[in-house]
Amino acid sequence: MSKKYNIENLTPFEPEGEKALSKKPLQLRVEQDIYNTVMSLPKQKRLKLLRQWIKDGVESLDNDTIKAS
Fold first, then answer.
1. Residue-wise pLDDT tens digits, 7-65
2. With DSSP H G I counted as helix, E B as strand and the rest as coil, what are the percentages for the chain, rounded to 5?
3. CA 50 to CA 26: how far, in whole Å?
4. Sign of the CA dihedral with 47 first, then 49, 53, and 58 last
5. How many Å apart are CA 50 and CA 44, to the nearest integer?
6. pLDDT tier, 68 (very low <50, low <70, confident <90, very high otherwise)
7. For residues 28 and 57, what is the distance between their CA atoms, to the nearest angstrom?
8. pLDDT at 26
């Protein structure tokens, strides 16, 4: 069953830095203890850390690709 959202209750996405956030979220599964640790953080800190971890990982992939060339 899909979730139905009331448009008035949705918060608009705000740009972060020079780039706006994507309209679609990333979803992934992790081990339960990792999930519990991350979810125990305050929401804003959790979101900031998750975005930074993903960004760092993508930049690391880009750097590895450049070094391998």
1. 555 566 566 667 777 777 888 899 999 999 999 999 999 999 999 999 898 888 877 76
2. 55, 5, 45
3. 10
4. positive
5. 10
6. low
7. 15
8. 84
Written as six digits, the tokens of 68 are 């391998």
Q: How far apart are CA 62 and CA 56, in angstroms?
A: 10
Query: How far is residue 28's CA from residue 31's CA, in Å, rounded to a whole number?
Result: 10
Q: Which two tokens stand for residue 42?
A: 């305050």
Q: Which residues are within 8 A (CB) of 46 and not within 5 positions of it... i.e. 6 or more apart? A: 38, 39
**Quick one: DSSP state of residue 19?**
B
